[in-house]
Amino acid sequence: MDFQMSPKGQDFLKRVKAFMKEEVYPIEEAYYRELHSLDNRWVVLPIIRELKQKAKAQGLWNMFLPEEEHGGAGLSNADYAVIAEETGRVFFAPELFNCNAPDTGNMEVLVKYGSEEQKKQWLEPLLAGEIRSAFCMTEPDVASSDATNMKATATIEGDEVVLNGRKWWSTGIGHPDCKVLIFMGLTNPEAHRHQQHSMVLVPKDTPGVKVERMLRVFGDYDEPAGHGEVSFTNVRLPKSAIIKGPGKGFEIAQGRLGPGRVHHCMRAIGAAERVLEQLIQRALSREAFGRPLAKLGGNPDIIANARMSIEQARLLTLKTAWLLDTKGILGALSEVSQIKAVVPSMLCTIVDQAIQIHGGGGVSDDFPLASAYGYARSLRLADGPDEVHRALVAKLELNKHRKR
After folding, report:
1. Which among 33, 214, 231, 342 counts the fewest CB atoms within 10 Å?
2. Residues ≥6 apart with Cβ < 8 Å to 171
3. Dihedral sign computed on CA atoms, order 27, 228, 233, 187
4. DSSP 8-state code for residue 195
């Protein structure tokens, strides 16, 4: 395994770090203060649009996308992983570089599987950062940890596909620039269980699409993107809105989730680094019983274990990115699930410990730790719960021994 970044990757990382230091960290506190002062937080503040234009002008744009012909940076998964860690240190930073979920995954889907018409209509404005998107897969009425339980339908009727059903935790649906949704639904219940579903591109303003409500995560709406519950009632679209064709939904999902999970995990590692810094600063600056918190009780062990956990998680995630680059998704199935189970849990633990070090302030809005915990805890469910990923890892391990 070679984790050495390419010269091109090193250049991008250096420039991203400079952008974060010069443009992002200085406005972070003011950004949240202004956003939280508004009665309507479902807006894009001018500073965000300004910084997006600056990043774009510097070529720090679409860095997640290896395909240069579509405007990507041409970076490998391993190169971009380190950059994703840096952007993950500030929650809104990935959007500044047009590298935010779920848009990254949706753009990857369109690059790999979209028709020329679909790319023209939706991929180009997404790559330009002119619009945003949402991904509608999880459903409130079934155990969505098993995606074959899906009840929403994408039924073929002549030259049209008709969508019906209800989705929730559709991230990005509340963003004022969200214009297109990717909907996954059941098309042919008689087919093989992994060839029954289709993914469909749905303009948000299509008749029959309704955002029923926005959902809170531990009391936080995550404005301005948010997560919503969306109903689809006899939504009629041309068959050309189906991505790759009927019954290809699971194939597309598998191709989408490998790099996306690396992105999620590396951003989470960046968040863990930031939280550990805050934990240590607090532990060094506060005293109790005549000693700094950093030297009290088991706190030195907490700090040491946090450092070791971050390093272990990073190495495993970089290995996964390297495998995706060298062997593809089929050569990294176990590792992709391993990182998705390991990294959010690691972040969850470190945030919890940072909250404890901060005392009552840790659960308040005076520090970013409560929102960081909500992010970490929900990440243990997003893109599949821990249990599903551990089950796949165990299955692959057992298969090795059965073959012997």
Report:
1. 33
2. 101, 102, 134, 135, 225, 226, 227, 382
3. positive
4. S
User: What would the pLDDT profile of 302-327 be if each residue is shown by its tens digit?
Assistant: 999 999 999 999 999 999 999 999 99
What number of CA atoms fall less than 13 Å from residue 387's CA on the CB side?
Answer: 4
Count of all residues that appear for the chain in the document: 404
**Whole-model pTM over 0.85:** yes
> Residue 304, SS3?
helix
Please say whether the beta carbons of 322 and 78 come within 8 A.
Answer: yes
With beta carbons less than 8 A apart as the criterion, state whether 307 and 276 touch: yes
Q: Is residue 149 within 8 Å of 184, Cβ to Cβ?
A: no
pLDDT (tens digit per residue) in 279-294: 999 999 999 999 999 9
pLDDT of residue 112: 94
Place of tokens 């990935």: 94
Rounded distance between C-alpha atoms, residue 346 and residue 269, angstroms: 9
Q: What is the distance between the alpha carbons of residues 401 and 403, in angstroms, rounded to a whole number?
A: 5
Position 236, amino acid: R
> Average pLDDT of 174-183?
98
Q: At 241, list the tokens.
A: 């809105």
Structural domains in the chain, sorted by start: 7-114 (1.10.540.10), 132-243 (2.40.110.10), 250-403 (1.20.140.10)
Distances (CA, A) of 219 to 86, 222, 361, 365: 27, 9, 17, 12
Give the residue among 298, 220, 313 at the shortest CA–CA distance from 264.
Answer: 313
Cα 251 off chain centre by? 19
pLDDT range class, residue 370, cuts 50, 70, 90: very high
